[in-house]
Design brief:
Layout: H1 2-11, E1 25-30, H2 35-44, E2 50-56, H3 60-70, E3 74-75, H4 79-83, E4 90-93, H5 97-109, E5 113-116, H6 124-137, E6 141-143, H7 151-162, H8 164-167, E7 170-180, H9 199-218, E8 229-237, E9 249-256, E10 259-268, E11 275-282, E12 285-290, E13 300-305, E14 311-314, H10 323-341, H11 344-350, H12 355-371
Parallel strand pairs: 1-2, 1-4, 2-3, 4-5, 5-6, 7-10
Antiparallel strand pairs: 7-11, 8-9, 9-10, 11-12, 12-13, 13-14
EC number: 1.1.1.179, 1.3.1.20
InterPro entries: Gfo/Idh/MocA-like_OxRdtase_N, Gfo/Idh/MocA_domain, NAD(P)-bd_dom_sf
Family: Belongs to the Gfo/Idh/MocA family.
Length: 381
């Protein structure tokens, strides 16, 4: 019954967008991507201070059909026309990874705040340029690592990892994220190098982000003063001779601020269920975190004592909303904060998956690809 209640809360949004505040944040969407419903439209339907105001797509007819289905007021001929609309305050960019840089830069130069899907771009060099442009334009640039905003992460995981007295020092972190590829076509954007494809980009970016979050929390650091990293080795899995730069999976080992991290991600070629898990070996305990990526459906955190084997399990469903709901809520609140006092620093205290954090994530991903003998995304063959 509890699961049914959570699923109902998550999927019951009415995209007619009724009862919006007169000063609601107006967001424009670049592209009619599949993720829009889950990541933006459904959460926005539950927030009176957010209005999905307009959409543009490569095919106007597709954009019109999408707008009719989801009651979006305006459709534009192209992305540039949408960006030129002064009524739009913020942009959601769910385009393929390889297009994030171009259109996020254009959005920032148009004076828009940007919520950009993860990973923020092809590589670290592009991420640095995007961050510089956001500072120049005095606009928010946010990477959509939605899991960070759910109470399970920002309360339960944070409080557990911060308890050094009970846990002792972290010895190692092991992360796994697998998704069956049977639901994906061979021409899926995830498998196209020009569009920034690869398992490490799509799945592995989460594991790198999660490892960083755990290490920074444990070491009492912020993403503005992270410790050093070193990628020791990486192995690309199931690379096709006909698509030699695309990894269907990746294993990698690296150190973050002196802590060993070993991660594995793959689009598996079987009918296995999705698996997402982190195992954190500490001096006194072993902490297991399951399904941090989508805790609204199911999750748990277990703490097992090394000395006596006693285990306790913690869950935190908050008010049964999705990670995307909490992310969008924070994004809107951060923009309102910025509009009230013109301080990006204060706004970034509310919405904290920043472009600066994206640079470090991409630095690690770039190095994983190099160690695996593959090209950094965005590099010409």
């Amino acid at each position: 019954m509890a699961l049914i209640n959570r699923l109902w809360t998550h999927f019951s949004g009415d995209t007619k967008q009724l009862q919006k505040q007169t000063d609601a944040l107006k967001i424009g969407i670049l592209g009619a991507a599949n993720i829009c419903n889950m990541a933006l439209l459904n959460p926005a339907s539950k927030l009176s201070n957010v209005l999905i105001y307009g959409i543009a797509a490569r095919d106007r007819q597709k954009a019109e059909a999408f707008a009719r289905k989801h009651y979006i007021p305006k459709v534009y001929d192209n992305y540039d026309q949408l960006l030129a609309d002064p009524d739009i305050t913020a942009i959601y960019n769910p385009l393929p990874n390889g297009l994030h840089y171009e259109w996020t830069m254009k959005a920032l130069r148009s004076g828009k705040h940007v919520l950009c899907e993860k990973p923020m771009t092809n590589n670290a060099e592009e991420a640095r340029e995007m961050v510089d442009e956001a500072k120049k334009q005095n606009r928010l640039l946010i990477e959509a690592f939605h899991y960070r905003y759910h109470p399970f992460c920002r309360e339960t995981v944070k409080n557990t990892i911060s308890n050094r007295d009970e846990n002792g020092p972290i010895r190692s972190i092991t992360g796994v994220f697998t998704v069956p590829e049977k639901f994906l076509q061979n021409n899926d954007i995830r498998f196209q190098y020009p569009l920034g494809g690869g398992a490490q980009m799509d799945l592995g970016c989460y594991l790198v982000s999660m490892c960083r979050y755990i290490v920074n929390t444990h070491n009492n650091r912020t993403e503005q003063n992270e410790g050093e990293f070193e990628v020791q080795k990486a192995e690309a899995l199931r690379v096709s001779p006909t698509n030699p730069q695309i990894d269907r999976g990746m294993r990698s080992e690296f150190q973050l601020d002196g802590i060993q991290c070993n991660i594995y991600n793959e689009f598996t070629n079987n009918w296995s269920f999705m698996k997402q898990q982190l195992i954190i070996e500490c001096e006194k305990v072993t902490i297991t975190i399951a399904y941090l990526i989508a805790p609204v459906f199911y999750h748990y955190l277990t703490i097992r004592q090394r000395d006596n084997g006693q285990t306790r399990t913690i869950k935190n469903y908050g008010d049964n909303q999705s990670t995307y709901y909490y992310q969008l809520k924070a994004f809107a609140e951060a923009i309102r904060c910025f509009q009230n006092d013109a301080s990006l620093d204060r706004a970034y205290e509310i919405v904290y998956t920043t472009g600066t954090s994206a640079i470090r994530n991409m630095e690690i991903i770039d190095e994983i690809y190099r160690k695996a003998g593959l090209l950094v995304r965005g590099t010409k063959n």
